[in-house]
Design goal:
Length: 128
């Protein structure tokens, strides 16, 4: 089950969904949720509001993304004009058709991430 709804996406977009967006929103929400679960390492229950807003923001970004074509980017995935000016801007968001996690969104998710815990143990033979 997706962590956000079409209503959440509308709130993130600040406008109503187009008919094409309405048809795609369910699939995009599922994809965004899958990415968030993978990043968090667990499925939160209940889903915190911040996680819902991140998923909605991810889908809103897909719908707001300007159209690009292959001629806009060089073979290495960078904008050719910007690269010529020595400013390299990664284009994952421009080369994927689905949602993506930015560093800012990862920061918003960090309090809910399940991480590894280091446990130190001492053997009974230690120091013998």
């Amino acid at each position: 089950m997706a962590f956000a709804t079409a209503v959440d996406v509308v709130a993130a977009l600040g406008r109503s969904l187009t008919s094409a967006e309405s048809a795609a929103v369910g699939n995009q929400l599922d994809q965004a949720t899958d990415l968030v679960v993978g990043y968090l390492g667990a499925t939160p229950n209940p889903v915190p509001g911040a996680v819902t807003r991140v998923v909605a923001t991810m889908v809103a970004a897909v719908f707001d993304k300007p159209a690009t074509n292959n001629s806009d980017y060089g073979a290495n995935g960078y904008n050719v004009v910007r690269e010529a000016m020595t400013v390299k801007v990664g284009v994952e968001s421009a080369t994927t058709s689905g949602p993506w996690l930015t560093n800012a969104l990862k920061m918003r998710l960090s309090p809910y991430r399940v991480g590894a815990v280091t446990v130190f143990t001492v053997s009974s033979e230690f120091g013998s």
